[in-house]
Amino acid sequence: REGLKNTVQTGYPLAMKVRFIINPSAGPKRGRLVERITAATREVFTGEEGLCDIKVSPRKGAVAVLARDAVRLSFDFVFVSGGDGTVNEAASILVGTGTALGIIPTGSGNGLAGALRIPENVRKAVGLLKDGRVRDIDAGRSCGRYFFSTAAFALEARLSLSYDKGFISRRLRGVFPYAPLALVEYLRYKPQLVRVSADGESFETRPLILTAANSDRYGRGTLIAPEASLDDGLLDLCIAPRVNFARSLGLAGRLVSGPIGRSLDLRRIRASVIRLSGMDEWTVELDGEPFLWNGAVEISVRGRSLRVLAPRLPAAPGPVE
């Protein structure tokens, strides 16, 4: 199943136009995704009217092409099966359009899906077309790109870049490679002086963590901004300075276990426009995708500009997976 022309017609009528885009290389659940999604759509929508197709994305950038084509053809929904990077690629095209995003979480991070409480089970995720609801959520923007969960600019971004390029992580995705990488990057990292301007408040800091959060979490269920809202038109800027090793270890533990909001080492500022300056080159991570950026960083939010399919009633926050 190679190329953009690959289409699987489900062979039954559906009440709306739905496109499924699959990243076959995302996450540990990549096997037989086309068959599993096809079976789920047949089970959920037999007897309905409309159109459903399934396309496989053969390379980076193809997801955006397929999503843009779906908007042009007036599809009601574009479902994406993959991780945070794949979801971001499709969602960035759907911002400001009438086409809603659906997510089948099959990546190693699944940050936005986790914040929306979207089930990882393929059948249940597809079933949201019948028993879910469409939400309008905010879209963050920085460095000429959209983000929907988090934008990171300090150690957390450097760690993501090392993970992305690492010998082990390129062969073994998931949480396992993060522990040794995090220790190595922590010991290497030298916080630089950064000037921060957030809705009129200005100050200088040498951050260990510097993240603008649209949702409450990074990928892999790691909470950074428990009080962040996806639809309030604001970003939660989270800043933690370099502290001694014991306190840094405690902060890392709170990120993983959940009560990060109680940490005295984490400062939170809620703002709609943020500017970062003071460094010639930044390591940036938007929704799990790291890259380098030169010059000042502008961060803003476009309120309720992305339509997303989610569970009808928000689930009570449970344990971080």
Would you write up a description of this structure?
By secondary structure, the protein is α+β, with helices and mostly antiparallel strands. The protein has eight helices and 17 strands. The chain has helices at residues 33-45, 62-72, 84-94, 111-115, 122-131, 155-165, 178-188, 245-257, and strands spanning 8-9, 17-22, 51-56, 77-82, 100-105, 132-142, 145-147, 150-152, 194-198, 201-205, 207-213, 235-241, 267-271, 273-277, 281-286, 289-294, 297-311. The chain has a six-stranded antiparallel sheet. Strand 6 and strand 7 form a beta hairpin. The longest helix is centred in the N-terminal third of the chain and has 13 residues, at 33-45. It is elongated and about 60 Å long. The two termini are 32 Å apart.
Keywords:
321 residues, alpha+beta, 6-stranded antiparallel sheet, 32% strand
Helix content: 25-40%
As laid out across the biggest beta sheet, the strand order is: 7-6-17-14-9-10
Main sheet characteristics? 6 strands, antiparallel
Rounded average pLDDT: 85
Which parts are unreliable, with pLDDT below 50 for 5 consecutive residues or more?
A: 1-8, 316-321
What is the radius of gyration? Answer: 20 Å
Shape: elongated
| Strand portion | 25-35%
Strands, count: 17
SSE ordering = EEHEHEHEHHEEEHHEEEEHEEEEE
Structural class: alpha+beta
Summarize the entry for a quick read.
The chain is of the alpha+beta class and 321 residues long. The protein has helices spanning 33-45, 62-72, 84-94, 111-115, 122-131, 155-165, 178-188, 245-257, and strands at 8-9, 17-22, 51-56, 77-82, 100-105, 132-142, 145-147, 150-152, 194-198, 201-205, 207-213, 235-241, 267-271, 273-277, 281-286, 289-294, 297-311. The protein starts with 7 loop residues before the first strand and ends in a 10-residue tail after the last strand.
